[in-house]
Amino acid sequence: MRSLTDTTTLHNGVKMPWFGFGVFKVKEGKEVIESVKAALKAGYRNVDTAAVYKNEEGVGQAIKESGVPREELFVTTKVWNADQGFDSALNAFETSLKKLELDYVDLYLIHWPVKGKYKETWRALEQLYKDGRVRAIGVSNFHIHHLQDLLADAEIKPMVNQVELHPLLAQIELHEFCKNQGIQMEAWSPLAQGELLNNNVLKEIGAKYDKSPAQVILRWDLQREIVTIPKSINENRIIENANIFDFELSRDDMEKINSLNENRRVGADPDNFDF
Prior knowledge:
Number of domains: 1
Shape: globular
Low-confidence stretches: none
Largest sheet: 8 strands, parallel
Strand order of the largest sheet: 3-4-5-6-7-8-9-10
Distance between the termini: 37 Å
Radius of gyration: 18 Å
Helix content: 25-40%
CATH architecture: Alpha-Beta Barrel
């Protein structure tokens, strides 16, 4: 992992950049357009959005205005909970594609494991994959038991599981399970919504490498072979977040960061959400 364009190969052979740009809570319009363009200018090639973020149009516009060839980009979006089910997920995909103004999506995810619906939704994603509308399909916020349940009937195994993951929630068992299944783990909220930026352990480790706590965390993700998608609307921060390919954390420092785990979430629990 020496540069922003380095990739992991998903189990179907598709290459996905290890490092990406998330746009959760980035406002539609100028804010999302400018921040995505700044990320693409800085060399990011992986952009992650979702129907529920309500900024797919801005992401699409930024891609168009950036001048970066489409085939160099890896674009993810997600089907929202209210649209789960076979037909409704297919319709939701068409809406997302139209908003993004793209011919295909690189990765389409089920956003949350809606009880009694995610298997039907998965059938829709399998259909989209077979039809060549998406290059890869996966899930988000799935625990081990959700994955086991899905795998019992799935024709195609998910290529990615995107979950909340940061040093306070290291997701060790889930990571192990996904590795064994050939499912690529991806971290959302890798900086715990900024909660970890003043952590003394991370500051101390950062000082050793002349890096910020954010850069230390993002490097920790990569060294654990986890795709990570930090978000920022500040161009300097966008560039700084990506400046993590010129150092490597020692085994000792990796262990120190691992020891911060409290299995504590900043987001909802996939077993207990009401949206």
